[in-house]
Amino acid sequence: MKLISVVIPAYYEEEVIEHCYESLTRVMRHTNYAYELIFVNDGSRDRTLEKLTLIASSDYNVKIIDFARNFGHQAAVTAGIAKANGDAVVIIDADLQDPPEVIESMIAKWEEGYDIVYGKRRKREGETWFKLVTAKYFYRFLNYMSDVDIPKDTGDFRLIDSKVAHIFNRMSEKNRFIRGMISWIGFKQTYVEYDRNERFAGETKYPLRKMLRFATDGIVSFSSKPLKYIMRIGFVTVILALGLLIYSVCAKLIGSPTEPGWTSIMVAITLFSGVQMLSLGIIGEYIARIYDESKSRPLYIVQNEVNFEHIQTSNRS
Ligand code: UDP
Ligand code: MG
Asked: Which InterPro entries match (predicted)?
């Protein structure tokens, strides 16, 4: 019997975790595959872990990786994939925004011979217009900026074949943007469409701060275009500055009455220092990444693992 691993990152999800377990179990039992549900507790200090441990004590299909602290969604998914034994690995959020039933159609596509099946969101329910608009333009912008083709309107909800998972496990970069990394790997890809639901309970663990961090990772990790644009902006401002210089020298030479000139100086100073700050910031992002990579610290620290000694061979617990 083929084995499907499902990786579920969970951060303060005590309100949904049981329901998540039940729905996933229902869906996976309905299939003809052995399965394992790998929950990664990303340093939640609520009752998420307690509830998971209880579930795992009576169901060996449930495995737990417990992080020493919050390392972030992308690190949690990475840890889950690293421990997955399946012939295919499914990544899904704990909050049931991605309907577990879609996994069945993903598996069907995989059986047709696709190595990566990603979930493409048809519509998203129960999200603020701010999230919808920022997400939409982020994906458009990302695609424009980035050097690999990252599918629009997809999250990390996807199925990957074990050979893709093995390659993914060898990618050691620290600033992880998983959907980009998987696109970068290549292989035969397709998608299934679905409607994204409202969160079952609890609230988003992606505040604006984390969203911005994530967006920066996506762009800077997959493109050097920002550096090229800095060059261009720099080039244009230098020409502007030269023009200004020639103009002021000529004005002085032909002896036209010197104006107070305060405005033009202020404009020049603010404009150019603005451009410089921006450029330094972008360059800084790249340098920070070089620094992160050179430290070669582990991506996450696991403090406990549960049920990994049990290898699933059937569809029952
Ligand atoms: N998550 C995590 N670590 C974090 C933030 C989020 O493991 O630091 C998990 C969270 O429990 C959920 C998934 O990542 O299973 C997606 O998070 P969320 O639903 O809050 O994001 P949104 O759907 O609002 O983008
Ligand atoms: Mg969510």
From this structure: Glyco_trans_2-like, Glycosyltransferase_2, Nucleotide-diphossugar_trans
Q: Cα separation of 181 and 218, whole Å?
A: 10
CA of 195 to the centre of ligand 2 (A): 13
Token pair listed for 161: 């074949």
Give phi and psi for 118, each to the nearest 5.
Answer: -100, 155
Q: Whose CA is nearest to atom 19 of ligand 1?
A: 204
Strand partners, 37: 6, 62
Phi-psi category of residue 96: left, alpha or beta, with phi > 0 → left and psi -120 to 50 → alpha: left
Rounded CA separation 122/292 (Å): 36
DSSP reduced 3-state for 84: coil
Checking ipTM against 0.90, whether it exceeds it is: yes
| Best residue among 93, 156, 196 to mutate for probing ligand 1, ranked by most atoms within 8 Å of CB | 93
